[in-house]
């Protein structure tokens, strides 16, 4: 009977560990969200770990269990914004056949996530102005703009190849879009009643014109490929 009992008993750690890891992830995201909000509402240098803990009704010691310092929390917060912002676009780039959809969806996501974009830009500006230097934080901020630039550049190059766009300098156009998106975010900070959604959609229309976007060209290109494929099969 003892041998049977040992055979039937499962180690609790194997059952509990996934739940503990899930709970840990949820708790970390709560800390990251609260930190981003406070860093943006106030100023990075003036916010303390105690402030963040109090906003959640928790003891500051619990945050130190997950993060070594306020700087460590800021690193994780910025990385979290970058990772979550671009996660869906990797799928979109793989699935879509139309490069304009990538650009259009990116612009729309900046409207839907305007509060997160505002916090990201505000924190980045505050951090730079605080005369504090941290290579990991600076790298995370640069990673956001680097990924944005590559995302847009790939879409513009692909559209030019398909004849959907006419653009001789995809990198410059990518920088133009990125810079003006930041401008919309900064103006929303300065001007209280600034309609960021309307302005980003105006930017969308301007980019469409500058790229000489021709939706029918993409349709014609797909038809040609389809006919070529059928011809090779025959």
Characterise this structure.
With 234 residues, this protein is mainly alpha-helical. It has one domain (69-233): Tetracycline Repressor, domain 2 (Orthogonal Bundle), CATH 1.10.357. It has helices at residues 2-8, 12-41, 49-55, 60-66, 70-95, 99-112, 114-129, 135-162, 170-190, 196-210, 215-233. Helix 5 packs parallel to helix 8. The protein is elongated and about 60 Å long.
Residue-averaged pLDDT, rounded?
Answer: 82
Low-confidence stretches: 1-16
What is the correct CATH architecture?
Orthogonal Bundle
**CA-CA gap between termini:** 71 Å
CATH top level assignment: Mainly Alpha
Our count of helices gives 11
- The proportion of strand residues reads under 5%
How much helix is in the residues?
A: over 70%
By CATH, the topology is Tetracycline Repressor, domain 2
Strand pairing plus helix content: what structural class? mainly alpha
Radius of gyration: 24 Å
Main attributes?
234 residues, mainly alpha, Tetracycline Repressor, domain 2, disordered N terminus
In brief:
81% of the residues lie in helices and 0% in strands. The chain has 234 residues and is mainly α. The protein has one domain: Tetracycline Repressor, domain 2 (Orthogonal Bundle), CATH 1.10.357.
């Amino acid at each position: 009977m003892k041998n049977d009992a040992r055979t039937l008993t499962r180690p609790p750690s194997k059952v509990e560990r996934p739940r503990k890891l899930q709970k840990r992830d949820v708790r970390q995201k709560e800390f990251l969200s609260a930190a981003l909000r406070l860093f943006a509402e106030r100023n990075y240098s003036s916010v303390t770990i105690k402030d963040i803990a109090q906003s959640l009704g928790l003891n500051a010691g619990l945050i130190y269990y997950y993060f070594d310092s306020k700087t460590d929390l800021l690193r994780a917060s910025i990385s979290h914004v970058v990772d979550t912002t671009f996660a869906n676009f990797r799928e979109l780039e793989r699935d879509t056949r139309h490069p304009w959809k990538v650009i259009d969806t990116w612009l729309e996501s900046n409207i839907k996530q305007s509060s997160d974009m505002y916090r990201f830009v505000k924190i980045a500006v505050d951090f730079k102005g605080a005369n504090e230097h941290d290579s990991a934080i600076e790298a995370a901020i640069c990673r956001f703009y680097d990924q944005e630039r590559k995302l847009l550049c790939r879409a513009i190059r692909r559209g030019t190849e398909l004849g959907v766009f006419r653009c001789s300098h995809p990198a410059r156009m990518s920088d133009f879009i990125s810079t003006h998106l930041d401008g919309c975010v900064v103006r929303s900070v300065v001007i209280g009643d600034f309609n960021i959604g309307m302005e980003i959609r105006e930017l969308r229309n301007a980019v469409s014109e500058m790229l000489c976007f021709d939706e029918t060209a993409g349709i014609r290109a797909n038809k040609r490929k389809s006919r070529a494929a059928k011809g090779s099969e025959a």
